[in-house]
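Tutorial, part two.
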Amino acid sequence: MPRKKWVVESSIEAPGGHVCVDIFRRWDESWGFEEYRRDPEDPHGWRQIGYHDHRMFPDRAACLSAACESVSWLSEVI
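Running the prediction step on this input gives:
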């Protein structure tokens, strides 16, 4: 599914600001998440590192719960 069909509902950064998780809603109303990293010396910005974007959830709560289980630092931040 093309990314242009997603709407990011929230982006949660880890302390230090080098990794984040985006929680998004797709055009079909399903939810998903992805983890990204950015390195200060890399001018290309955020890069996908989690490869969770194919996973689908019926609502934001289920998506956020799965994201917390999959991304080690996330539950400590939210």
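The CA atoms of residues 57 and 63 lie 5 Å apart. In part three we will examine how such features are distributed along the chain.
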